[in-house]
Write a structure and sequence with these properties.
Layout: E1 2-7, H1 13-23, E2 30-35, H2 38-58, H3 75-79, E3 83-86, H4 89-98, E4 105-108, H5 124-148
Parallel strand pairs: 1-2, 1-3, 3-4
Helix pairs in contact: 1-5, 2-5
């Protein structure tokens, strides 16, 4: 099964989801991720992505990260996936303007991005705490996805 995670910047949510699912080493599961506005905002998101990588390091998953980040969503990502998982409705709505989902199997989570919500101006410590909380939420969602799709039963 080919699973593609999509958020807005491919800096935080879809990046963590891809990393965590890859760390499970599931047979016959290929995983990728991208973002709907990734290319446009890569430079400004680079400092935040460093924090995301620090949180991934805290969980000893660095070896499972892809080399790049802020990969832009393209039609080929959709065409090559059996399942596309959107981090939240805004990411799905943006994707709908960029690609044709056609009959692609999709799922939409409800994970807030760092630039959404009431206070997008975090201190450094607040941002790291936000990423840690998001990491836990993403891991829970990936584990449910894996169980519900019958990819593995031990989660």
């Amino acid at each position: 099964m080919k699973i593609h995670f999509v958020c807005r910047g491919n800096v935080f949510r879809s990046f963590i989801a891809e990393t965590y699912l890859r760390s499970l080493n599931l047979d016959d599961v290929e995983v990728h991720s991208s973002g709907t506005i990734a290319a446009e905002h890569k430079a400004e998101n680079t400092p935040r992505h460093r924090v995301v990588r620090e949180v991934i390091d805290e969980h000893a998953l660095s070896e499972f990260t892809k080399d790049s980040f802020a990969d832009q969503l393209e039609q080929s990502h959709i065409d090559n996936a059996n399942l596309v998982v959107f981090a939240n409705q805004p990411a799905k709505d943006e994707a709908d303007t960029l690609v044709d989902l056609g009959g692609t199997d999709t799922a939409t989570w409800h994970i807030e991005d760092f630039n959404e919500g009431e206070n997008p101006d975090f201190t450094d410590d607040e941002f790291k705490d936000f990423v840690r909380k998001g990491y836990d939420e993403i891991v829970d969602n990936v584990n449910k996805l894996v169980r519900n799709r019958g990819l593995i039963s031990r989660l």
